[in-house]
Model the fold of this input.
Amino acid sequence: MTAPRILVVNGGVACRGSVRTPGEKSISHRAVLFAALAEGTSVIYGLSDGADVAASLAAVEAMGVRVDRAADGGVTLHGGRSLLHQPRTPLDCGNSGTSMRLLAGLVAGFDWETVLIGDASLSARPMDRVAEPLELMGASVEGSGPSCRPPLRVKGGTLHGIDWTTKVASAQVKSAILLAGLSAEGPTIVRERVTTRAHTEEMLVEAGADLTVEVWGEGRIVTIHPSALRPVSPRTVPGDPSASAFFVVAGCVVPGSSVEVVGIYQGPARLGYVSVLQRMGARVTVTPDPDGTATIRASAPEAGAPPLAATKVAAAEIPSLDEIPALAVAAAVAEGTTVFTDVGELRVKEVDRLQAVIEMVTAFGAAAHAEGDTLSITGVGPAALRRTRFDSHGDHRMAMAAAVAAMAVTPGERSLITGFGAVETSYPGFADDLARLTGLEPPAPRALLIAIDGPAGAGKSTVSRAVAAELGLDRLDTGAMYRAVAALALARHIAADDHDAVAALAATAQIVVGPQVVIDGQDVTGVIRSPEVGQAVSVVAANAEVRSHLVRLQRAWAAAKGGGVVEGRDIGAVVFPKAEVKVYLTASPEERARRRHDESAAGVARRDRIDSTRAASPLTRADDAHLLDTTGRTVQDVVEEVLSWL
Ligand code: DC
Done:
């Protein structure tokens, strides 16, 4: 993972400069799948580096395609229909609906069974829209429930063409049917009432498929006859227009900004969002480049110029709806109410994106609501959004849209976007590109470590738990690790002060600390809080060898998790001296004794005395730790203060 898990964004920092977005995702998926079917070698440049396309690549690899990655970014696929075989394990599509739907169509043409699985969000998405036509063609497609949710079991074989009118406007459904049509007997016809993305048709024709397209009212009729594909190589995937929307909107709404996004795919209906922004009065232009791509330039209104104005947006203008989260940010800083009609499909994206957009707009201080399939956003005017903390809901487009909204808040105010790692799905380098455009330091990749130290009863557990939940980070209670060793010593009848024997125990025991504490396979969650363990633990924790062993485990935990919230006594001073935020919690002796009601006041005092006077890493406040007295304060209040130090 290269993206940070949490993004801290300064309001009002202008974006200036040029950026190239990752390869267009839809084209990347298709380039991979068609190269897998094409007899021979295909070299692809500019392939999307997101997790979605990686899932498609891994799937074709699992079916026998050799994939080589070159230092110049080129990806070579050695494919051919005749080379493909049944995958040995289920094909994991991760978060990618495109992978699952297109692969379902592809594997339907082979007489073996393929299982397609996905993450929790993909597993909740409807697959009946592809299952129904594929079954009519002669495949068997099983999923769960009436909407045929994944895992999907596709048994392919001898297919025959059908004449199908799609029920939802979806390029994925159309593509799945056309992929199956490649190996079906007779012509396969797909009618769509509304035109959707045409990458599949364009790229299949390029690869030699017998395919024709006719205009049909507002839509198209696509007819494909059984065809063999040939490699299209080398192929350069143009930049993703959906990804460009985030920087273009930032350019339009953050005062002082001027951004250009180069190398962008400019196929039909893909830059509809630019027309929407132009209608709102934004300064944005599209210039075609000689290589067939486009450069989009966007700049913020000049001082004194009128702000963006609300508009009406019909779903047909932005068929995939992928740019709505970014446009929602423009609507949130516009004057008046922008109305998006027919956007109900947003509910079945990676998350309920309609709800997520409403939450985001509201969190930043504008107003939004949905009625049926209509979304209305009432803006607050320029530079008037307020800072907030927003969670991406695990959705890449929400993470990026929220980053743009955060740039448009009142200058100087900082917002926090949690769950930011979701951008890995489509744009792992988004934060780096943003940093370049704003001239700020790129955020630390991966690790955000928050160290929380302090004596018994200071509130470490409660605060660290709440901070971790707030930020979507994992939490490690290092005290539980010392307690686990003490509990094991007691169980083995080893005296706590038997230095060598206890050190040997710590070195060999398997300690797992999570919601449950498990030592050598035994759940000791309850046992480690017993008075006996409370008595023994300070002595065990004073053992330098035990400490060095547990510190190693603590560092390995953080490396594996990519950061987290770690509580203990020596975390900021010894275990993670470079933690991003260090907190030293205290509370009055009376309050600490009250919180530790399961332990006598004398017991707590004795433990604190040993912990702070021992030779090996005694309880200390690191020089750069924030001192926070929790006496009489609410948890939420303390958590807010900790988060303000991020
Ligand atoms: O946080 P706690 O009370 O559960 O910790 C149990 C004991 O472990 C405590 O007396 C001090 C010791 N400890 C330590 O020495 N270093 C740590 N990082 C965490 C706990």
Q: What stands out?
A: The chain has three domains: 6-22+241-438, 25-236, 449-644. DSSP finds 21 helices and 33 strands in the chain.
